[in-house]
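To whoever is on call:

I kicked off a structure prediction for a single chain this morning and the downstream step that reads the tokens threw a length-mismatch warning. I double-checked the sequence; it's 411 residues and nothing unusual in it as far as I can see. Pasting both halves so you can look.
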Amino acid sequence: MRIQRQRNSLKGLPRNIWAVSLTSFFMDISSEMVINLIPLFLANTLGVRTGIIGLIEGVAESTASLLKVFSGWLSDRLRARKWLAVAGYGLSALAKPFFLFATSWGWVAGVRWADRVGKGVRTAPRDALVADSVQPGQRGLAFGLHRAADTGGALVGLLIAAGLVWRTQSTALALTSSTFRLAVLVSLIPAFLSVLSLALGAVETGLKSQAQAPKLAFKALGKRFMVFMGIVALFDLGNSSDAFLVLRAQERGASVLGIMGMLALFNLVYTLASTPAGRLSDRVGRRQLIIAGWLAYALVYLGFGLARGVAHIWALYALYGLYYGLAYGTAKAMIADLVPDQLRGTAYGTYSALLGVIDLPASLIAGALWQGVGAWPGLGAGAPFLFGAALALLAAFLMLLWNPTQAGADG
């Protein structure tokens, strides 16, 4: 009993979990210093419309979709995870300096897409490395800790970005080009620390199963996994880029510094909720936590659609952090429950690819609903959020109805 309690504690987690968590901590410091300023840089400095911003953000996530599947499958095929993940983090770190020279939306898009290719290479092998490194009863805790570290880095990155905004333009409503480029320059330091943390801190585990290396065939992932993916796809169609949340906050009157504060609050709640939620999913089941998270998301998006002032946006960002803490890491732990260990890389690649593919139409729909397309003027700033809330409620209902028959699928 004492050994079991130790395994279910943070002290019982192996070295790889801490190395991967530190890597994500540094990379999110770097990413969050820049990623949330990109829509403001595009809209305020370059004068880009929301439809183009939706296109950039949608393609940014979708462009690496096939890479996520291939990279996950390749890690299964090679029975190796670490160095593919290192390569992906390295590519993202090398792409970031090119933001310093961006003078058009096409340039921003190119750098953003190159960064996402790096994410496509690293995500599935990294998640599979986490799953391979722990026992089944530790998966929720391991992924919860990883999400907490990832989001803790995002919080630190946002606070640094907020400090830079405060020093350079105080409470101005519009982001300046010089502030954006300064944030990019500072972000390069944690980006390269991230690559070093994984390269020097993690060890290759290999696959525990001795089964033959898999072919790239989705059928082998099983019906339960495919049903789960179908429900997730429906939810994600209403989950447009967070760039629209940033633009909505600005549209409601928030300053750039205020938006940084809202994002910091979001990441604080996300960080605090992730590890306890992961541990709870090990005990009570994954579906329950995912459903609760999706219901929180529906409330958040309904609130963004109806928000009247800046104070409402602050409260909604806090609830948004709770959604992520409950659902995001839990979904990744559930994937490890649903597929054989020799197919985990392929499964995580498929999951990430699906989200990437859906992100493009989700963001295009959001941009069109907000400001229209062609001669159609759209339905206004609240429309994409009401659409997202409706799909989240439908997905939560379907998840409630779905009941995998095999033991262990639910946590």
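Update from on-call: the warning came from a stale cache, not from the record. Cleared it. Sanity check on the structure: The longest helix spans residues 139-169.
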